[in-house]
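queue> pop job 88
queue> type: inverse folding (structure -> sequence)
queue> payload:
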């Protein structure tokens, strides 16, 4: 890495927001995955659109998008970003006994959108839990991780499958 070291600590060891003003704007993208496990009968109700609280998938998708836009309000020291695109995909999968969440966030700016993608995936999963808990309380949320990141000085990162 060239230039000054970026840190959330100032010279006295106090927490600060990193100054990214000297960094160049580049096109940046991050993709995060998550998963919520549920019983087959709960998943069948979600897929059929028969949950008591309504269209679970549409609500979770919108919640994830809204969360990505509010990441700086939720994560201390996270930069507010002008996000250009957020996509949240929810894939019901009977073989995996649940729903796989994929959140893709894009911006052009001086810092990346990994936190926005992770926040979108997390909030989408939490929304799925909230909307399904009347039917099942044993659901598990997990496997939330970044699978792709591009743009910026650190270049491209692609998570190796199974890692």
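queue> result:
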């Amino acid at each position: 890495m060239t230039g000054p070291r970026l840190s959330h600590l100032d010279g006295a060891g106090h927490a600060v927001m990193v100054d990214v003003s000297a960094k160049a704007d580049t096109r940046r993208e991050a993709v995060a995955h998550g998963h919520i496990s549920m019983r087959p009968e709960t998943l069948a109700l979600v897929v059929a659109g028969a949950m008591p609280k309504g269209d679970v998938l549409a609500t979770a998708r919108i919640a994830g998008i809204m969360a990505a836009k509010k990441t700086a309000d939720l994560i201390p020291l996270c930069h507010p970003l002008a996000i250009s695109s957020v996509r949240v995909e929810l894939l019901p999968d009977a073989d995996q006994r649940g729903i796989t969440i994929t959140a893709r966030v894009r911006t052009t700016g001086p810092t990346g959108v990994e936190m926005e993608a992770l926040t979108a995936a997390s909030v989408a999963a939490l929304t799925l839990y909230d909307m399904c808990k009347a039917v099942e309380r044993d659901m598990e949320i997990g496997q939330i991780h970044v699978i792709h990141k591009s743009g910026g000085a650190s270049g491209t990162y692609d998570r190796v499958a199974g890692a």
